[in-house]
Design a protein that fits this description.
This protein has 3 domains: about 60 residues, no CATH class; about 210 residues, 3-Layer(aba) Sandwich (Rossmann fold), CATH 3.40.50; about 90 residues, Orthogonal Bundle (Arc Repressor Mutant, subunit A). The strands form 4 sheets. A 5-stranded parallel β-sheet has the order 5-6-9-4-10, with helices on both faces. A 3-stranded mixed β-sheet has the order 1-3-2, with no helix packed on it. It is globular, with a radius of gyration of 28 Å. It is built from 14 helices and 13 strands. It is an alpha/beta fold and about 375 residues long.
Length: about 375
């Protein structure tokens, strides 16, 4: 009744004709189908069933909802396989494995896919094709968390042109791809919990579409949350019917070729279930993703290298950075303190200043870490 309103319930149960019938149906609903406390609703996809189904555990307050996958129409798996290979090239096997896990499993951590490139390269086609596998569990999403988060009940979310790029969104993406449960907040409804079953795909023309913490660039493909890939230009002519052609063949493809891919997977040792290639596009994303504060902190590192101030240079050589050095280049005390905190957070400076004397000059200084020393030794800045 919460889902469809009391009036619709009465119409569906033919109890809307008179008050007596309405009372009987409502009494039956409350006495026989009442869940004292709704704890969890789980929405899953199941390629092996032919129609949606649900199970209710009244004692535990849990509801399990299962949706069927799109049906078989045309038996032509080669068409879909050829499209995937054409769009993903050397990473076609990765996408097949990702798609196989999406189809055949629930509640597994999968990497977020970020597809980059100009219009006309198939980004939307890929996302919409994926959404058609379990259409009731798919939704276009704005890419960030809001008060009412209907999207957490879905299995597949896709973002067309990300409208937000900040640390809050970065945390949301990490949470949605990693947390075990999510709380659903809907208008005029009590919050309830769902098991997190969400996989995310982002489509963008921007080569730096989201904010990421650049010091979290993965070094191991077994522990990589993002697959970032720029789709190549389409060499053949544009097929205006490609979307329907793929969907008509997708039902057979997921039950044949993708099933073989899934059955051959070994998911042990992978944080996000499969090996996730660290692409050049992902490296660029992390290298170019900086906040204004991080950019200012980088400028101070540059000034350390280029500084001609004899007093500061002698401290730098001993592995210390005077607090006064930050003050000389920054008007706002609040801002230079934030810059120092950023450098400490990045592991470039030690946590607390100490009083140091070098060549009869006494200064309050932060001690450099080996990481900052190495960065200063390797840095080459060109003065213009």
């Amino acid at each position: 009744m919460e889902k469809i309103t009391q009036k619709k319930f009465q119409i569906l149960t033919d109890s809307n004709l008179d008050q007596d019938s309405r009372n009987r149906s409502l009494n039956h609903l409350v006495k026989n189908n009442h869940i004292p406390h709704l704890v969890c609703v789980d929405y899953t996809g199941d390629v092996d069933i032919e129609a949606p189904s649900y199970e209710v555990n009244k004692n535990k307050g849990e509801i399990q909802v299962r949706y069927d996958a799109l049906p078989v129409k045309l038996k032509d798996s080669e068409f879909v396989a050829s499209f995937i290979h054409d769009r993903f090239g050397q990473y076609a096997q990765f996408f097949k494995e990702w798609l196989a896990l999406y189809v055949y499993t629930n509640y597994r951590k999968l990497p977020t896919i970020i597809l980059v490139g100009p219009r006309g390269r198939g980004k939307s086609t890929i996302a919409e094709m994926t959404a058609e596998i379990y259409p009731s569990l798919s939704q276009g999403w704005h890419g960030h968390e809001e008060t009412h988060n209907y999207e957490v009940e879905k299995k597949f979310l896709y973002v067309e042109e990300n409208e937000m790029s900040n640390s809050h969104q970065y945390k949301t993406l990490k949470k949605y791809s990693g947390q075990k449960y999510a709380m659903v907040n809907k208008k005029f409804k009590d919050p309830y919990r769902v098991k997190n079953n969400t996989s995310i795909m982002m489509l963008t023309n921007d080569k730096v579409p989201i904010y990421v913490k650049r010091d979290e660039l993965p070094t191991d493909s077994k522990n990589n949350q993002f697959f970032v890939y720029e789709l190549p230009p389409i060499k053949t002519g544009i097929n205006t019917d490609i979307q329907s052609d793929l969907v008509n063949r997708l039902g057979h493809y997921i039950r044949t070729e993708l099933k073989q891919v899934y059955e051959g997977l070994n998911m042990d040792g992978y944080r996000y279930s499969i090996d996730v290639p660290i692409t050049p596009e992902e490296k660029l994303l992390f290298q170019c993703s900086t906040t204004d504060l991080e950019a200012d902190a980088d400028k101070f590192i540059e000034k350390m290298v280029l500084s001609k101030n004899e007093v500061y240079s002698t401290f730098f050589e001993k592995g210390y950075v005077p607090v006064q050095f930050f003050k000389d280049f920054d008007v706002s005390a609040n801002h230079y303190n934030r810059v120092i905190k950023n450098l400490v957070k990045r592991g470039l400076l030690m946590g607390n200043p100490e009083r140091i004397m070098v060549k009869n000059e006494r200064q309050y200084c932060y001690k450099m870490t080996d990481l900052l020393k190495d960065e200063l030794d390797e840095a080459i800045f060109k003065q213009i």
